[in-house]
Design brief:
This protein has 189 residues and is an alpha/beta fold. It has 6 helices and 7 strands, in the order βαβαβαβαβαββα. A 7-stranded mixed β-sheet has the order 3-2-1-4-5-6-7, with helices on both faces. It is globular. Bound molecules: 5-O-phosphono-beta-D-ribofuranosylamine. 5-O-phosphono-beta-D-ribofuranosylamine binds next to α1 and β5.
Length: 189
C-alpha cells in the first residue's frame, strides 16, 4: 500500500474529502501524515480526530524554509511517503522538498489556471466579471500555481451572484476532482 501525505493550513474540507475517499476504498493508499504550518487550524484538529499522524509547525520557530522543510522531509521519509498532496497549504514549496519529490507533489487551485494564480482566485474571478471559472489540479514546481496541469473542471458562474455561492460550488467540484486525480496518480506510483 502506497503512503501519501497531505499538507494543509486551514479548514481542511479537501483533506476531509481525500480522507473519506481513502476510508471507503476509492483511493488505495494510506494517509500517513498531515503536515500543517498552523498548529491551531481546523485541519489539524480533524486529522487528530481521525487518528492521522500530524506534524504541525510554526515557521517562525525555524531560521529558514530549508530548516523546516528538512524536518518535514525526515518525517516523510520515515513513513515511506511517495506522494505529497497540497490541499490549501499557504506556502510555496522550496528546493528541499521539490528535489526530494520531483513530479510527486500535487496542488489544487480554485481557478482555471493559468487564470487567477495566487491568493483569492475566486475574488479575482469576481472582480474580472468572469463568466466561467473552475478548478485545476496540477504538479507543483518552484512557481506560484505554475506547474504542469493534470486536470481541470469548469464552473459557469454567470448566474451566481454571491461569493458564498461560487465558493460552495467550487468546493463541490474540488471534493470530487481531487480524489479522482489522486486515485489515478497513486495507481501509477
Ligand atoms: C481550496 O479552495 C483549494 O483550492 C485552495 O485552498 C482551499 C482549501 O480549502 N488551494 P480547504 O481547507 O480544503 O477547505
Amino acid at each position: 500500500m502506497k503512503n501519501i501525505c497531505v499538507f494543509a493550513s486551514g479548514t481542511g474540507s479537501n483533506f476531509d474529502a481525500i480522507y473519506h475517499s481513502v476510508l471507503n476504498g476509492e483511493i488505495n493508499c494510506n494517509i500517513s501524515l498531515l503536515v500543517s504550518d498552523r498548529k491551531n487550524s481546523l485541519v489539524v484538529k480533524k486529522a487528530k480526530d481521525y487518528g492521522v499522524d500530524v506534524f504541525a509547525f510554526s515557521a517562525k520557530d525555524y531560521s529558514s524554509k530549508k530548516d523546516f522543510e528538512f524536518e518535514i522531509k525526515r518525517e516523510l521519509e520515515s513513513r515511506g511517503v511517495e506522494l505529497i498532496v497540497l490541499a490549501g497549504y499557504m506556502r510555496l514549496i522550496g528546493d528541499t522538498l521539490l528535489k526530494a519529490y520531483p513530479r510527486k507533489i500535487l496542488n489544487i487551485h480554485p481557478s482555471l489556471l493559468p487564470n487567477y494564480k495566487g491568493k483569492d482566485a475566486v475574488g479575482q474571478a469576481m472582480s474580472d466579471n468572469a463568466k466561467i471559472t473552475g478548478v485545476t489540479v496540477h504538479y507543483v514546481d518552484e512557481g506560484m500555481d505554475t506547474g504542469e496541469i493534470i486536470m481541470q473542471e469548469e464552473l459557469d458562474i454567470s448566474n451566481m451572484d454571491s461569493r458564498d455561492e461560487i465558493e460552495f460550488n467550487i468546493h463541490k467540484i474540488e471534493h470530487q476532482l481531487y480524489p479522482k486525480v489522486i486515485k489515478k496518480i497513486v495507481e501509477e506510483l
